[in-house]
Amino acid sequence: MKTLLKFLKYRVHFLLTIYTRKFGEVRSRLDKELVLMQSDNGAEVIISKKNGALISYKSNGTEQIAQPFLPHFTRPQTDNDRKGWKPSKLLKVWYDAKPSLTALSVDSTVKGQLSVTSTYRLIKDSASVQVRYTFNGNGVLKVNYQLEASDKLPNLPKVGMQGGIKRNLDQLTWYGKGPLENYVDRRSGFAAGIYQAPLETFIEPYVYPQENANRTDVRWMGLTNTGHEGLLVVADSLLSMSAWPYTEEEIVTAKHHHLLKDAGYITLNIDLIQMGVGGNDSWSTVSQPLPQYQVPAKNYHYSFYLLPFKGNISRKTEEINAIKF
Q1: Which residue range is the domain that position 54 belongs to?
Q2: Rounded to whole angstroms, how far apart are CA atoms 156 and 170?
Q3: H or E stretch including 9?
Q4: Count of domains in the chain?
């Protein structure tokens, strides 16, 4: 019996040691305005209690975030949108929807992890969204997104999140469809692979500013500086992602490409899905995407991971997949 107890004690100690090494420890501080989480490896995340958003992600003191990340459901209109079927009117309820934080909770019941859940009202009695941020001791942040929407609502332009990252993270590497922009109804000629591009060529400079630069079937995307340091986004399934050196509002209001003003940060869209671009004509409702390329109002769920990264991302696919939890 003594031998068995010693063996069991050793096994418990061994398992706890492995668990701690795998996940590390998470330290936290809460006040009236924010929830701050710190990992063993120098990563730090801040969630705002004012809007429930991710507002800071630091790695060894270096900030990655420039603007809050919040649920987002619109895109700049394409020529087909603007001149043709006018989704800003037909889908107006989604263009008007602004996430309003109704609840924020903190959960530390899982060892080596801390979770913050932000719940938002979007459309009264018809749509809400919940975003759960889970931070582990290795400095990895998992974002779990759950949209609940009545099927009586009109279709959505897209389902996703939008925020801003530092302007110097303008070197993009991604594993997904490429190398050029592609959409759910404009991607059959694009192969999935690992691609690289600086932001200036990643975007598409349409003469009349509009939606651009989307990539579909994204497994992961790294946005780094010229020293190969920056932020990595890893999908749990497949993502639709884009990045611009402008705000969405700037793209919507500018009348010519040369009038666009650099935001001083990069707008990053991390979406589950975006409607297609359509184009059976460009002057009527026929210009809208075919039904199979629209986004019907219903419940949607997806998740992804964020983490600071250093090195040649394209050579570390196995390491990237290993960060999931």
Answers
A1: 2-321
A2: 29
A3: helix 2-23
A4: 1
pLDDT of the residue at 177: 98
Burial 239-268 (b: 16+ CB within 10 A, else e): bbbbbbbbbbebbbebeeeeebeebebbbb
161-215 residue pLDDT tens: 999 999 999 999 999 999 999 999 999 999 999 999 999 999 999 999 999 999 9
**pTM of model > 0.85:** yes
Query: Which CATH number covers residue 296?
Result: 2.70.98.10
Distance between CA 76 and CA 212 in Å, rounded?
8
Q: Which two tokens stand for residue 69?
A: 């990340």
Nearest alpha carbon to residue 117 among 93, 133, 128: 133
- In angstroms, the CA 129 to CA 146 distance is 6
Query: With the CA atoms of 271, 275, 279 and 284 taken in that order, what torsion angle do they form, in degrees rounded to the nearest 10?
Result: -130
Computed on alpha carbons and rounded to an integer, the radius of gyration of the chain in Å comes to: 21
CB distance 214 to 182 below 8 Å:
yes
| Through-space distance between the first and last CA atoms of the chain, rounded to whole angstroms | 37
Provide φ and ψ at 242, rounded to 5°.
-150, 160
